Amino acid sequence: xxxxxxxxxxxxxxxxxxxxxxxxxxxxxxxxxxxxxxxxxxxxxxxxxxxxxxxxxxxxxxxxxxxxxxxxxxxxxxxxxxxxxxxxxxxxxxxxxxxxxxxxxxxxxxxxxxxxxxxxxxxxxxxxxxxxxxxxxxxxxxxxx
Length: 145
Prior knowledge:
Blueprint: E1 2-7, H1 13-16, E2 29-32, H2 42-50, E3 66-77, E4 80-92, H3 98-101, E5 107-110, H4 115-118, E6 128-133, E7 140-144
Parallel strand pairs: 3-7
Antiparallel strand pairs: 1-6, 2-5, 3-4, 4-5, 6-7
């Protein structure tokens, strides 16, 4: 049994890290925001509810307000399970920052080893869903469909 925790808005070029020109700066990550569920407290939802069982740590002195955690995801792309990937999550704890005050995402998934699997124009306007399994609360499924 799986529980849907979040569904993104239709995926964009930026979300999928698809270069739009030779000068495109790819972020290598996707912002976790209100999504199509319109989660009202999305700035804290992912850190405090979705990924609360992970080991979060402050690990870069130059960013004392940023927490990091590694998360294992089973990845399903258009119905095809491509395996398990460990992806880094990043969460800003500075709710006085310009980003926070503009009601922008505070938590992101870094694509890391999955980057070259998701930078596919076929996934544009699809959605990304994150699930948790009932059998193991630290097992997540990331699905693009």
